[in-house]
Design a protein that fits this description.
330 residues; alpha/beta; 2 domains; Rossmann fold; two-stranded antiparallel sheet; 15% strand
Length: 330
C-alpha cells in the first residue's frame, strides 16, 4: 500500500513539474485572448501581459499590442493599423514587432525640430534632448481593412499626427468583420484553458473544425472592391483629423519567387495602386526590394508572416517615407 502512495505522489509531482515547465518555459496555459466586438468583429482582450515561447506580449486597455499610451499632446504619435504582420503574434517579441522597429528608426531619423512642440510639454527641455514619440500598434491576426476601419470608428485616432495602414496581399480578399471565430476557432480563444497540459493536448491532437466557421469564409460580390472602399474610408478619417496618411503593402512569400505570383493577386495589387493614385496617398510597396534580396526564406517565417529581417526591411521602408512626410508637415 505504501508503494502505491509513493507512486501516486511521484506521478502528481511529475505532473506538477511538467505543468510548471510548460507554463514558465513555453508559456502554455495563457494564450492571447480575444473578445467579440460589434465594429471590428473581434480584437485582443485588453490588459494582457503574457509570455509565449519566450516572447513577451503586452496588450493595453485599447486592445493595442504595447503599453499604456501617453497623455494627449505630449508625444508625436503614429498610429499603425494592420493584421498579424503588424501584430507579430506569439512568434514575435514585443521589441521585435514592426512598430517597435519603426519607432526606433523614426527616433533616429527625424530631425529634432519635428519634436519641438512636444519637447515643451516634457518639462521645458530643449528639443535636442528629448524625442517624445509613440508608435501605436492597432492590429489583430487576420484583420482586414474593414476590421481596421471598424476600430477607428469605435476608438478614434488618439490624436495621432500620422496614420500608417499596413496591408498584405491577402488582405484584399479578407471577409467582412465577424465575431463568430471567438471561442470557436482555437486560434481565437476567449478563455484560458486553465492548465498548460490542456492546451498542449489541444495543439497536438487534431480537432474537428466547427462547421459554423465555414460560413464566414463565403461572401458574395466583389470582395476586393469592398476592402478598397474601406481603405478609402480610412483615408477620409485621416484627412478629417488632419493626419499624415500612407499605405504600405507587404507581399506573400510566393510573390517574391519569380513567376509564382498569381494573376488575381497581381490584379488586386494594381487596383490598390490605382486607388492610391486617385486619392494621392503615398504608397510603399516592398515587393521589388524583397525580390532583390534573392533569399525569400530569410524574409519570411512562413508564406505570409515576416521574419525579424523582414520586419527590419519593411520598417525601414516605412520610416524613410514617413520621415519625409512628417518633416513636410512642419
Amino acid at each position: 500500500m505504501k508503494g502505491v502512495w509513493i507512486g501516486i505522489a511521484v506521478t502528481v509531482g511529475v505532473a506538477i513539474a511538467v505543468e510548471l515547465g510548460l507554463r514558465w518555459i513555453l508559456g502554455l496555459g495563457t494564450p492571447p485572448l480575444y473578445v467579440k466586438d460589434e465594429k471590428t468583429g473581434y480584437r485582443l482582450k485588453p490588459g494582457q501581459n503574457i509570455r509565449r515561447f519566450g516572447n513577451r506580449i503586452g496588450v493595453n486597455r485599447f486592445s493595442m499590442r504595447g503599453g499604456a499610451i501617453a497623455d494627449s499632446g505630449t508625444t508625436l504619435r503614429v498610429l499603425v493599423l494592420g493584421d498579424s504582420i503588424v501584430n507579430g503574434g506569439w512568434w514575435t517579441d514585443q521589441d521585435d514587432t514592426l512598430t517597435a522597429r519603426l519607432r526606433l528608426k523614426l527616433r533616429q531619423g527625424l530631425p529634432p525640430r519635428v519634436f519641438s512642440k512636444f519637447a515643451l510639454s516634457q518639462g521645458g527641455q530643449e528639443a535636442e534632448q528629448v524625442s517624445p514619440l509613440e508608435v501605436l500598434n492597432v492590429s489583430a491576426n487576420s484583420w482586414g481593412p474593414r476590421n481596421e476601419l471598424g476600430y477607428l470608428e469605435q476608438f478614434g485616432v488618439f490624436e495621432s499626427q500620422a496614420l500608417v495602414l499596413v496591408i498584405n496581399t491577402d488582405d484584399f480578399f479578407s471577409k467582412k468583420p465577424t465575431s463568430v471565430p471567438v471561442g470557436l476557432d482555437p486560434n481565437y480563444p476567449s478563455e484560458s484553458p486553465g492548465l498548460a497540459w490542456v492546451e498542449l493536448i489541444q495543439m497536438i491532437l487534431p480537432t474537428q473544425r466547427n462547421p459554423t466557421l465555414g460560413e464566414i469564409e463565403r461572401e458574395d460580390g466583389d470582395v476586393v472592391a469592398k476592402n478598397l472602399r474601406a481603405i478609402a474610408q480610412i483615408q477620409a478619417i485621416a484627412a478629417a483629423n488632419n493626419m499624415t496618411f500612407m499605405v504600405a503593402i507587404t507581399p506573400l512569400k510566393r510573390e517574391v519567387v519569380p513567376n509564382t505570383q498569381r494573376d488575381y493577386e497581381r490584379r488586386a495589387r494594381q487596383r490598390m495602386m490605382d486607388l492610391t493614385q486617385d486619392l494621392q496617398v503615398p504608397l510603399v510597396d516592398v515587393l521589388e526590394e524583397f525580390r532583390a534580396v534573392g533569399d525569400p526564406d530569410s524574409l519570411f517565417r512562413d508564406n505570409i508572416h515576416l521574419s525579424i529581417d523582414g520586419n527590419e526591411r519593411v520598417s525601414e521602408a516605412i520610416a524613410q517615407k514617413l520621415q519625409t512626410l512628417l518633416v513636410a508637415r512642419i
